[in-house]
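For practice. Any example?
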Amino acid sequence: MATEYAGRLRRQALVPRIITAVIGIPLLLALLWLGGPWWLVLAAALVVLAAMEFAAMRALSRPAEWTLTIAALGAFTLVAIAPGMPVGWVAVLWVLIVLALGLLPLIRPGTGASPAAPPAASVVLGIAYLATPLAVLVRWRLELTPLSVLSFLIVIWANDIAAYFVGLAVGRHKLAPRVSPGKSWEGAVGGLAGGLAAGVLLAGWLALPRGEAALWAAAVTVVSQAGDLFESALKRRAGIKDSGRLLPGHGGVLDRFDGVLLAAPVAYLLLRAFAGR
């Protein structure tokens, strides 16, 4: 058993993953702590990079790619910094668009390399899928504490790490073999346990009782795992393994932030609801 597990670890190319994390995480945390324009610029850069990857996955033409990138940046800026922006209603619209243009079409069978959605639908989906969550992270940092944003990221990371190693060690039952053959139910349960534990330990940073922090973390973890599967389904449709090559060992921006994109609006709204703000 130990020999098999060691062999699996060797095949996963952990060294590039670790190097990328060692360089990227301190930079991310520094910009989060600085806040203000630093956090805004980082989020805007992620919007642009993610839009480029998304356009490639959806086989968009160059004019459509530029339309997506510019419109996503505009929507991001509006939601992130416009005073009096009803973020709750924006999140509701985000859910409807992602469901209608993203999740429901993926229910249909087929994994061909040519995306079924027309370019206009892909552009609208890209704007909602990419711009809204990253803009919410900016507003979150402006309105609440940096420690609460950090808690959200730690819950996501705890889920990812626990799911990864539990899945490697004991993963036997496939979670969604047609979408992501490497993911298992055991890994998903391990990820949930990791995210839940992190949320309880970080209750003080969230300014929540431990029970509410546990509920919040469980919801964040489940939605994050759904975001991972959603991005995997998009890649499966496009016939590619990774969304990009920017981050060695991780793939592209969408590969690294897929869980964050779906979970951020849910986490922000739930946190505000629990805190009564």
